Amino acid sequence: MDSDYGVPRELSEVQKKRTLYEPEVPPCLQGTTVRVEYGDAAIAADPAGAHVISHAFPHTYGQPLAHFLRKTAVVPDAKVISEHPAVRVGIVFCGRQSPGGHNVVWGLYEAIKAHNKNSKLIGFLGGSDGLLAQKTLEITDEVLSSYKNQGGYDMLGRTKDQIRTTEQVNGAMASCQALKLDALVIIGGVTSNTDAAQLAETFAEAKCATKVVGVPVTLNGDLKNQFVETTVGFDTICKVNSQLISNMCTDALSAEKYYYFIRLMGRKASHVALECALQSHPNMVILGEEVAASKLTIFDITKQICDAVQARAEKDKNHGVILIPEGLVESIPELYALLQEIHGLHGKGVSAENISSQLSPWASALFEFLPPFIRKQLLLHPESDDSAQLSQIETEKLLAQLVETEMNRRLKEGTYKGKKFNAICHFFGYQARGALPSKFDCDYAYVLGHVCYHIIAAGLNGYMATVTNLKSPVNKWRCGAAPISSMMTVKRWSRGPSASQIGKPAVHMASIDLKGKAYELLRQNSSSFLLEDIYRNPGPLQYEGPGADSKPISLCVEDQDYMGRIKKLQEYLEKVKSIVKPGCSQDVLKAALSAMSSVTETLNIMTSSSSGQTQL
């Protein structure tokens, strides 16, 4: 065991109190018998990519959905698992740390011990590096004691490196075989779960006995699809950031002379920025998805902000708060194109010092226009997944500087009558990653840990643990598992009128749905947010009292529960089959045929239109 990991923490009184909180589990996970109902084969949401995905994952694509049932459920075809031999399960943190990750470990530990006290949970130290090096720590009550309901990943450590190359995949399989693992649980976001799917496929092809299970844990909230409503950590990050933003709002309102430009962590998608805006009511939020959809340039965005500052000044308000997602730089067309050129030169081995001299004429002109600090940051070597080092690119300072220049010009010309523009910039990112998790994240993570054991007991491979109906109380949560391959899409890039490039299947980041209810709610209130100071402070994280049971607004306003709807559809189909049998009346048969014909025609049109879309 590495002495840096698993060491009992020195806890404050608040932390000690929080270790005593015991999350609830839904009825479907209670008891020592596992009841699982299998649905139909799960397919990819993008029909056009289904062939590519099934070809890449022949052993794990097309597996059925799994629903875990409560003891009182009457389902004739359900599989009942009452015998639980001792198992050896490995667990590893991958990707960036996210509040609540420790509770996944705790939930899984409690579940495997409840079903067989001789089972072992083995943590890999230092993330995927520890997995490949077989550096392990057996999880025990003593190890867990000071990490329950606590933030960070420091019990085991983590890595953001991918398990992608043939050498890495084979190394992971060798470790699992050497340790005689029945299952490997991978905790992470879109990249880590894509890796989990590849490991599951490779293990199945090699007839390796280890089953691979993924868990949706990422603070960015961008692992969202028909099976995953939100991720562990998202609620905490948004609540912690929203309180900080609200503090800035109060300060701005008090001083009446500053504009705060606040950049928020969240990678390319703007889910964190959207949720924080709904919680704290800042004057303005720039969403990357809006910018990309409208193809706004950096000058368009600057003008938008300047016009907002001028409109507020006309109401004698010379202060405000503006939220900016860290991924905005990749949503601005000209800056994204510049980054692509820079990364291409990095890939050719050109040093950072020489890149500027090898840019195309237009890129060189844009590069020279930008302030020196941004130039230096854009030249940083890309991440392991070829994306920009977004956390290091100070887009908020760039926008603040451009806005200040324009407002000074307007002030000089006399078109702006307000006070001199003053900006203060902040980046809210690392401060929240190690935060004590919210009650919702503690519950959600703990339940997902229990779901992992149910998946393992059912002998499933290449699945992600899922919990739906999350906006309801815990006792109404629906627990199940979905094949990770069914969550994959295939990116396509147009290359002229007839040529296109097809990427590898992957669990891709989900952007904000600009037709969704959360975005609609923001747009309905954007004018009042801009011109009226209706700032809202959600307060600190609570486990008891007002606000303790609050959940993300963007989760609660959406009408999700996909797994519940699938089950409801299956029930309707079964009712139709039970009513329309040989011997039923002509009228019943005609009504059924007419209804089914109309439904299938509508569904055929919907699926054909979606499969014909090209992703750019």
Give Rg in angstroms. 26 Å
Beta fraction: 5-15%
Helix percent reads 40-55%
Note the overall shape: globular
Poorly predicted regions are 494-499, 611-616
The largest β sheet comes out as: 10 strands, mixed
- Quickly count the helices: 22
Distance between the termini: 47 Å
Q: Overall mean pLDDT score?
A: 90
Strand order of the largest sheet: 3-1-2-14-13-8-7-4-5-6
Write the layout of secondary structure elements.
Elements: H1 13-19, E1 34-41, H2 50-56, E2 64-68, E3 79-81, E4 88-93, H3 101-115, E5 120-124, H4 128-133, E6 136-138, H5 141-144, H6 166-178, E7 183-188, H7 190-205, E8 211-216, H8 234-255, E9 259-264, H9 271-280, E10 284-285, H10 288-294, H11 298-313, E11 320-325, H12 333-347, H13 352-355, H14 361-369, H15 372-378, H16 395-413, E12 423-428, H17 430-433, H18 439-457, E13 463-468, E14 478-483, E15 492-495, E16 499-502, H19 517-531, H20 553-557, H21 562-579, H22 586-611
Helix pairs in contact: 3-18, 8-9, 9-19, 11-16
